[in-house]
Specification:
three-stranded parallel beta sheet, about 5% strand
């Protein structure tokens, strides 16, 4: 397993670590990273201290031959007790491979050669790049420009989508405001739909007879309730003794008549 891996399901060395990317896409990423290195806000957002830098991109001469002279150019501080974690410093881009500038900068921690992974470490744009004069002059020939083709076969420098990146200024310009439609001050809102089964006024708009039908149903319900109450009160009322005795006598007479008229006799 890989160095520093865990015991269960360790990271294997034969993992597919790298992915193939189109050449044109790589070139697009390189020129985008180089362009972002010239924006002070992006460079400062990465943590680089560029308050004393005269301009961005920073271009220096090819005169530095010793490490001490290179440190004077960069003005970097000490790195005591920070042996394992070192921050990404400035990126030096030089023109010729055998220049004396290489020996001057190679012993400074955080200073590296030009690379796509070094231009934007961790996917964050805006690394502080220091260009030599010879390297900066070769940019137009390597990547090309809008008026000049590049040395790379079939590569054209990507153009920006907007000529003026200030979108608010473009929208508020007289040319755009004279064409667009005026602001609608009167807002017409859609009315809220009401349920006719719950709202009587809405039901009356759809069915004018609904009010009469509702009144008739209420009256019929009241009459039904009244009749039921009267019937229950009549059943629950106490019967007088004389009436109870007459009912009992009538019952006995009916029983005797039934026995006399039947074919069965009492044993």
């Amino acid at each position: 397993m890989c160095r520093g891996g865990r015991m269960f399901a360790p990271t294997k060395i034969w993992r597919r670590w790298h992915r193939k990317i189109k050449v044109n896409q790589k070139r697009y990423a390189v020129v985008s990273a180089i362009a972002s290195s010239a924006v002070p806000s992006l460079v400062m957002a990465r943590g680089h201290k560029i308050e004393s830098v005269p301009e961005l991109p920073l271009v220096i001469g090819d005169s530095a031959e010793k490490t001490s002279a290179a440190i004077d150019i960069l003005k970097q501080g000490k790195t005591r007790n920070r042996r394992y974690i070192s921050r990404k410093g400035s990126l030096i881009v030089y023109g010729t491979e055998g220049a004396k500038l290489v020996k001057a900068f190679r012993n400074i921690p955080g200073v590296e050669r030009l690379n796509l992974l070094k231009l934007a470490p961790g996917g964050h744009l805006g690394r502080f790049v220091i260009w030599t004069k010879s390297a900066f002059e070769k940019l137009d020939s390597i990547d090309g420009s809008f008026d000049k083709t590049s040395e790379k076969k079939g590569y054209i420098l990507p153009r920006s989508k907007m000529v003026n990146a200030d979108l608010a200024r473009t929208i508020n310009s007289d040319e755009v405001q004279s064409v667009v439609k005026p602001i609608k001050k009167k807002v017409k809102r859609a009315p809220m739909k009401k349920n006719p089964l719950k709202n009587l006024n809405t039901m009356l708009k759809l069915n004018p007879y609904a009010k009469t039908a509702r009144r008739m149903s209420l009256l019929a319900e009241a009459q039904r309730v009244k009749a039921k109450k009267e019937k229950l009160d009549k059943k629950r009322a106490q019967i007088p003794k004389e009436e109870a005795a007459a009912i009992k006598a009538a019952g006995k007479a009916w029983y005797q008549t039934m026995i006399s008229d039947s074919d069965y006799t009492e044993f």
